[in-house]
Amino acid sequence: MSANAAPISLNRFAEAIAELPVGNLHAKAAELRNSVAHLVSSNEQLQQYAVDGDQDCSDAIRENNEVIERMQSRISLLRNEVEGRGLPWDDHQISTMNGNLEDQMANSRGEMAEENSAFPEANPSSGQPRANGGSLGDEELARRLSERLNESMQDENDGIHL
């Protein structure tokens, strides 16, 4: 969020979630709880510097605490919305979703690394230098994509999966 942008008000947040499916409400709660956990961890790391008199760290902790309070209020609104629909609110399920989201993110990072290995010059972590400072010309890109498409078509007769 930019320094000038204000967070959405609680009333607008409540209006926005009113039409969302229950699964989305639980997913948003899991996302918010994950963010709160990261902010709490950040505060713990900043605490020793704040105690030593670092004003910037003290300010960051104060700001993080304000954000944590807003996020917890939003989680309460999500809970009220779910329960208002006559459905149960399961804190354990949301905690499990948090873990699943982190696992999915880790898996997708691994898949991206595997995909980038097809073109080592496009993968900065491959240890290979990038051609042309990290960019391919239109002709070279078209040639490589064509090669990849042809290989894929030979390997799998059912096309390319995006």
Structural account:
The chain has 162 residues and is mainly α. The chain is 69% helix and 0% strand. The protein has five helices and no strands. Helix 1 packs parallel to helix 3, helix 2 packs antiparallel against helix 3 and helix 2 packs across helix 4. The longest helix has 30 residues. The chain starts with 9 loop residues before the first helix and ends in a 7-residue tail after the last helix. About 11% of the residues have low confidence.
Q: What is the tally of beta strands?
A: 0
| Number of alpha- plus pi-helical segments | 5
Distance between the termini: 31 Å
String of helices and strands: HHHHH
Report the sheet with the most strands, covering strand number, pairing sense and barrel closure: none
Structural descriptors:
162 residues, mainly alpha, 5 helices, flat
Task: Indicate the topology.
Blueprint (H helix, E strand, L loop, with lengths): L9 H8 L4 H30 L3 H30 L6 H26 L21 H18 L7
Helix pairs in contact: 1-3, 2-3, 2-4
